[in-house]
Amino acid sequence: MADIRVYPVPDGLAGMRVDMAVARMTGLSRSAVARIADAGGVLVAGRPVAKSDRVGGGEILEVEMPEPVRVVPRAGGAELALLYEDDDIVVVDKPFGLAAHPSLNFEGADVLGTLLDMGVRVAKSGPAERKGIVHRLDVGTSGCMVVAKSDIAYSVLKQAFRDRTVDKTYHALVQGHPDPLRGTVEAPIGRAPGRQWKMAVREDGRASVTHYETIEAMAGGTLLDVRLETGRTHQIRVHMAALGHPCVGDPIYGADPTLAARLGLERQWLHAVRLGFAHPGTGEPVSFASEYPEDLSVALETMRKGVFR
């Protein structure tokens, strides 16, 4: 039997596209809502509406929810340091090689499964395979990541990420030397043609804004402080590659694999060093920091010494 849920449209969403409005109200991704609408699963007054139609304040939407994805959080078996925990949130120091949540295309451990294996409660909100997950880091990216433990925290944090009020700061070691030393990349990002898991700068992509500033220039590359205004998949990796300065150790986006080998790197040099936001329970500003893991520290020091040549 289909799971039909009813959602009154708040005035604040009046005039918004159906796919965007339903995504905000349900926690589903916009692409998932688009598929539901295309199949006739979003109705107003009993009539299907298109994903591009506009909603009106006070309208009642009926949404045929998708069946939960048949993926269960995997028991971790991975080390996961907790930077902070209270009744609303847990902030983890995600290591390289750990996914944010389970997926059909990744066989390793994940943050969600590891937290559950550790006995940490997570929010019930969100799609089945990523409950409590309000943002993600790539498997090959390490650093600060927050997970919601309460449903209220999930809703507040998701909105904060949408409103771009979260401070997301990364350090990236890139090939070459960006000119100017500091700048902003504003380039839309979408799926690379014919490559399901690769992204690219595309005119029809989603608006994406990345700010960068040089921390240290070395003979073989540059250490950058990078702040994300938006949060697209692979955003830093795509934008740095678009500048002609891919992250060291990222051959998917054009980095020299021989340089990574000389530095002893098995992944892209990219680390989420700071994460700041208004605490979803108290409203007070909180900030968390993560130190470089050993593989990134060793690679950076090797480049500084120039012994990689």
Largest sheet: 9 strands, mixed
Distance between the termini: 64 Å
- Average residue-wise pLDDT: 88
- Strand-residue proportion: 25-35%
Order of helical and strand elements: EHHEEEEEHEHEEEEEEHHEEH
- Poorly predicted runs are 68-76
The residue fraction in helices comes out at 10-25%
Q: What is the gyration radius calculated from CA atoms?
A: 21 Å
Number of strands: 15
**What is the 3D form?**
globular
The class by helix and strand makeup works out as alpha+beta
Number of helix segments?
7
Keywords:
alpha+beta; nine-stranded mixed β-sheet; four-stranded antiparallel β-sheet; 21% helix
What report would you give on this structure?
By secondary structure, the protein is α+β, with helices and mostly antiparallel strands. It contains 7 helices and 15 strands. Strands 5, 6, 7, 8, 9, 12, 13, 14 and 15 form a 9-stranded mixed β-sheet that branches. A 4-stranded antiparallel β-sheet has the order 1-4-2-3. Strands 10-11 form a two-stranded antiparallel ribbon. Helix 1 crosses helix 2. About 5% of the residues have low confidence.
